[in-house]
Amino acid sequence: MPSRRTHTKSRLGCLQCKQRRVKCDEKMPRCGSCAKHNIACSYTGSSVNRLLLSRSVYNNNQQSLDIEERSASESSYFSPTSSYSQSPPNTGIGKLSRTSPSSLEPLDILSNLIDRNPQFTSDLYMRDLELMHHYSTQTYRTWSEAPELQEIWKTVIPKEALAHHFLMHGLLALSALHLSQINSGDKGPSQTMYMEIATRHQSLALSSFRPELNNITPLNCNALFAFSSILSIIAFASSQCTGIEPGMAPVEEILRAFSLLRGVYEILHTAWDWIEKGQLGLLVRHEGTSTGDTVPAEASAALDYLDELNNDNRESEARETYCSAIRKLRESFENFYTRCQQVRSATAWPITVPHAYITLLKSRQPMALVILAHYCVILRSLNECWWLTGWSEKLVEEIYQSLDASWRPSIHWPVKVVGWTG
Fold first, then answer.
1. For residue 324, what are the contacts with CB-CB under 8 A and spacing of at least 6?
2. Least CB-packed of 16, 37, 206, 374 within 10 Å?
3. DSSP characters for 341-397?
4. What is the spatial distance between Cα 299 and Cα 320, in angstroms, rounded to a whole number?
């Protein structure tokens, strides 16, 4: 007796083929038998399960099942009002062993991973991702020469920014300014675009930063300190990317940067103990590595000359103020040359000088301008730092033009070092 011909049972066939007791080829959305007889064709079971087990979804270039055809359990899961943490429905993936692996299209399984909830949209802000990539690969390196401090700006502060949006906007603003400065040579659309992006992020950062200053706590002090440091860089960097603001002289512009540095420092000084004991403590405790060098004789002689000039100054009521400003400037020169603290030298002096000196500088007192000209030597030594490029030349030029002929010899050394020829 001849053996019975083997055949594969159709377990997922359409209702019509089952009623007629014929084999269904399970093609979707209409099987071959129903198409041949030109009758309706319908299936049972989970639509996702059918999608996974179909062998012809991609081959026949058919669309996937409409959302309306999903089962009630699926509809509740993908509903816009449902919770994102809700457990997904049973997709029947555990039953795949019933079907031969050769009957599955490899990419069909991926279709089950697509979330069709309309409330979950693709919100990848590619420009902001570009800014964060640039910050984490380039900008963070410009904060300090010390590797241990660079690591804090590379890893610790970006992580802190995830919990404080004003800090994240500050990092993105700084990165955009850096990119604007990099593209400043061609004065093309890229520079303008990055400058506009920087302004937008800076505005968003400041709007949420100011309220935080009214309630400094151990939870937000690190983020506030980091952002205040970013603000100081932004204050210097903005003019490098946009040029001197119309109607604003270089001395006036740097005074604005000084005021920002001093104001934020005074506010955060109340939280200094918290900051020192936290993850950013190294930024304020770091003493720098000794370089083994000494302050060049020419620089020491110039600072000694400032002391002599101040002692001969007729403005006796301001002599002590100028003496303090010169002493702090000498400390900055020592940190610059003898310790690995070049960048800090540029930002520390304007914070530590007496407030009375800033007042004298605002009124363009000759001795105050002469001291500022000597500070420009530090700025000139950091001219390769993108946010300080060009500051020394602009300041020395204005100071020279502001002084009368009797005071101009007092800034001979800064003029020579900066390289301004007039």
1. 353, 354, 357
2. 37
3. -HHHHHHHHHHHS-HHHHHHHHTT-HHHHHHHHHHHHHHHHTTTSTTTTTHHHHHHH
4. 22
Distances (CA, A) of 9 to 39, 126, 394: 22, 51, 87
Tell which residue, 413, 331, 345, 416, has the closest CA to residue 382: 345
pLDDT per residue as tens, the chain (422 positions): 555 555 556 566 788 888 888 888 878 778 888 888 888 887 654 433 444 344 433 344 444 334 334 333 333 333 333 333 334 444 333 343 444 444 545 555 555 555 555 554 555 688 999 999 999 999 999 888 788 889 999 999 999 999 999 999 999 999 999 999 888 776 667 888 999 999 999 999 999 999 998 899 999 999 999 998 898 888 888 765 555 455 578 999 899 889 888 877 777 788 888 998 889 888 877 655 555 568 899 999 999 999 999 998 766 689 999 999 999 999 989 888 876 556 777 788 999 999 999 999 999 999 999 999 999 999 998 888 888 888 999 999 999 999 999 999 999 999 999 998 87
User: Which among 112, 113, 104 is positioned nearest to 56, based on CA atoms?
Assistant: 104
| String of DSSP letters for 104-141 | S-TTHHHHTT----TT------HHHHHHHHHHHHTGGG
CA–CA gap between residue 245 and residue 240 (Å, rounded): 10
* Token pair belonging to 7: 């055949």
pTM score of the predicted model: 0.68
Give the whole-angstrom CA distance, residue 177 versus residue 169. 12
31-36: which pairs have CB atoms within 8 A and are 24 or more residues apart? none
b/e string for 67-80 if b means 16 or more Cβ within 10 A? eeebeeebeebbee
Long-range contact pairs involving 298-304 (C-beta distance under 8 Å, separation at least 24): 298/413, 299/333, 299/337, 299/377, 302/374, 302/377, 302/413, 302/414, 303/329, 303/330, 303/333, 303/374
CB < 8 Å & 24+ apart, contacts of 258-262 = 258/350, 258/358, 259/358, 260/231, 260/232, 260/235, 261/232, 261/235, 261/347, 261/350, 261/351, 262/350, 262/351, 262/355, 262/358
